[in-house]
Amino acid sequence: MISLMSRKQDLVALSSDEEEYVVACEVGKEVVWLRKIWSDLFGKPLDPTVINFDNQRRINMYEDCVFHARTKHINNKYHYIRSLVQDGVVKLQYILTDE
Residue 32 belongs to what H/E stretch? Predict the structure, then answer.
């Protein structure tokens, strides 16, 4: 499934880590919405949705349950992506930037 959306972010990020968290959170919300529609239409259980990232450090931050010093300034609502990974709703996958 592919969903395209373009709009301005409602906040000014203090770091690139925070910016990536905000984007990942928005992607996670979109995934949950699309999975709900798919499930309602076909009534089948779904495999985890794969989200591709080109940064392995970010993937490790999202999958790690420990809050690091570099992420403590990020609002808790943006850690939603971590709960989706832990619940098996999404799977984070590394791809090269060129792909």
Answer: helix 16-42
